[in-house]
Amino acid sequence: MTAMRKILIMAAAAAFFMPAAEAHTARCYPAARLFDTLRAQFGERPVGAGVAASGAFQLQMWASPVGTWTLVYLRPDKAACVVADGDGWTLAPAAPAAGEAS
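^ thats the sequence. predicted structure below, dont judge the formating
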């Protein structure tokens, strides 16, 4: 499993298990508009992405150098929905592949 896949799984799991008071209702926008906003207002850039095994949708993780982050669900109709967002994003060190020295 690649480090980026692990990050996306952890992000999706965190969003799923987030307490209801902290969870957001998905907010959906045209993808280009949302991405422009994430770049311009928050300084975020994509740091990871993954496609569902079914191929039906994509998750993207966006983050900024100051730690803001946004988990985005891309629908087949080109809408992008904010699943969760927050502060304190850090990249986890890449885990060594099986058989590699750590």
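Residues 3-17 form the longest helix (15 residues).
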